[in-house]
UniProtKB/TrEMBL annotation:
Family stated for the protein in its record: Belongs to the peptidase S8 family.
UniProt entry tagged with the keyword Signal: yes
Organism: Bizionia myxarmorum
Keyword terms, alphabetized: Hydrolase, Protease, Serine protease, Signal
Protein name, as recorded: S8 family serine peptidase
Length: 535
């Protein structure tokens, strides 16, 4: 039987544990040595699929954040302070059954009177602000650079070169996904006809014994699909359809040089041109689900008998709609960060990113502003499976690998729900300098618009998992500064000693410690213990 290698806290962490306060109120001990714990070799149960990010590596042999263990053994019935978490994203369904009880409300603003009652520059901003107005579809940033036609722009030539490559790549991927969809659909119809029923199990497919070539081929295709983590033809068709939609959007929307997406009437290149947008933070359409999913990971009401549990209780979600179906504008992000800080947020989640940023200084200045005002910004590392120490990705708190402007900026990579060599999600970016920690980010179940729930993956899902842990620490240990809480998150994680596959390339295997600054997985249980010693 394979065994998980032992984890031992570093001497530095051990010193913090023993020297900072008595910690008498917490009798638990940190997770630090998991010798002789077997790897998870069976498939996740349905319950585990819905909350694997909350499970415990020792108890469940799944690399979750020990959230349930933290509630059961540490938080129990303790009362914490309310923490406002700003979610800068697409719209959030604030009427969702699992979110409508955890919303931030601007009590200084009178709804619907058309007056800026609190004089914060935003009229009727009841639950946040919508910087996109009625728009949603948008170009990628390098396409906007090309569309402006300014050949003197130092990024223009690179943008043109990238456009040609990305357009052909998106077109080829769309065609490939179209073909795969048709093949899986045909295989599903063939097996359904052979078995005489629409719904069937993978075991029934594996048991098929026939001389019919078309049935054999269909069964082989479905078994290959099962081997790649998809449990049914329905799930496969849904996932493939998402791919078709994604690449169709790239071809027709994101890479469309003629698209005029912005409708707010402001000048996106003038940071002083403010007052645009509106107070409607809801998604513009049902498919605009990203922000709702992210919000649920952080704060979906716990243990209410509904679809999902958020990481944090005692949270109010502030919705800042600033991320379109395409690349966000630097101006919107900079203003959204400042709005969050000025209106009481103590944590900001940013599950977005891009590789061109004409006004990155505006965003860095806003990130520094958050740090100066004791606010933590949790940032998704990105989903291209690349080393972001060698390629600029935005937003960031430094130029390249230079001096950081913030003491409270945390960048997060994504984990799969199985400890071992394949625990790093193949899509996840990484970086010894620019990625701080890893957290559950693949196959994450959470809220989606219209009281629905769905499973999504990305560093976009890993960041809010960490934002939830940050909110827990800030709620129960409010005297800690944002910088201290960041250090708790990095230092209290579980060290990973194993080698892992990088970027989904089975030939690229490296020590986990080379992929992240802390060389650790975030752990809520350990974070609360360490925070208790620092208060």
């Amino acid at each position: 039987m394979k065994l998980i290698k032992s984890f031992v806290f570093t001497a530095g962490i051990a010193a913090v544990m023993t020297s900072c306060g008595s910690g008498a109120e917490i009798l638990s001990t940190p997770i630090e040595n998991i010798d002789m714990v077997p790897l998870k070799i069976s498939e996740l149960t349905e319950a585990e699929k819905h909350n694997w990010g909350h499970l415990d590596l020792v108890k469940d042999t799944i690399p979750g954040m020990s959230v349930d263990k933290a509630y059961a053994e540490i938080i129990k019935n303790k009362k914490g302070e309310i923490v406002i978490v700003a979610v800068i994203d697409s719209g959030i369904d604030i009427e969702h059954e699992d979110l409508n009880g955890v919303l931030w409300t601007n009590k200084k603003e009178i709804p619907g009177n058309g007056i800026d009652d609190d004089n914060n520059g935003y009229i009727d901003d009841i639950h946040g602000w919508n910087f996109l107005g009625d728009a949603y579809d948008e170009q990628l940033e390098f396409v906007r650079i090309i569309a402006k036609g300014d050949e003197s722009n130092p990024q223009y030539a690179a943008a043109v070169a990238e456009y040609d490559e990305k357009y052909q790549e998106a077109l080829a991927n769309k065609q490939r996904y179209d073909q795969i969809y048709e093949m899986v659909q045909s295989a599903d119809e063939t097996i359904s006809k052979h078995l005489g029923k629409k719904e069937y199990t993978k075991e029934e497919v594996a048991a098929i014994d026939t001389d019919k070539a078309d049935v054999k081929q269909a069964a082989a295709m479905l078994q290959n699909m099962y081997a790649n983590g998809l449990d049914s033809s329905t799930a496969a068709l849904s996932a493939i359809k998402e791919g078709v939609t994604y690449f169709s959007d790239q071809v027709n929307v994101n890479l469309n040089k003629d698209l005029k997406g912005r409708t707010t009437g402001d000048n996106p290149d003038d940071l002083t041109d403010v007052g645009y947008g509106n107070g409607n933070v809801m998604p513009s359409q049902k498919d605009e689900s990203h922000g709702t999913h992210v919000a649920g990971i952080i704060a979906a009401e716990r243990n209410n008998g509904k679809g999902a549990n958020g990481v944090a209780n005692n949270v109010q979600i502030m919705s800042l709609r600033a991320v379109p179906n395409g690349d966000e504008y630097d101006k919107d992000i900079a203003l959204a960060i400042r709005y969050a800080v000025d209106n009481g947020a103590k944590v900001i989640n940013g599950s977005f990113g891009k590789y061109y940023s004409p006004h990155s200084d505006w965003v860095r200045d806003a990130i520094a502003y958050a740090s100066d005002n004791d606010v933590i910004f949790v940032n998704a590392a990105g989903n291209e499976g690349i080393d972001i120490d060698t390629k600029d990705v935005y937003p960031n708190d430094a130029i390249g690998t230079g001096t950081e402007v913030s003491k409270t900026f945390i960048t997060v990579g994504a984990l799969e729900p199985k400890y071992g060599p394949s625990m790093i999600a193949g899509f996840s970016n990484y970086g010894k300098i620019n990625v701080d920690v890893f957290a559950p980010g693949a196959k994450i179940y959470s809220t989606t618009p219209e009281n629905e729930y769905d499973t999504k993956g990305g560093t976009s899902m890993a960041a809010p998992a960490v934002a939830g842990v940050v909110a827990l620490v800030r709620s129960y240990y409010p005297k800690l500064t944002a910088a201290q809480v960041k250090q708790v998150i990095l230092d209290s994680g579980i060290p990973v000693m194993t080698k892992v596959v990088v970027g989904g390339d089975a030939t690229d295997v490296r020590p986990f410690s080379e992929l992240t600054k802390s060389a650790k997985m975030v752990n809520a249980y350990n974070a609360l213990i360490m925070a208790s010693q620092m208060k």
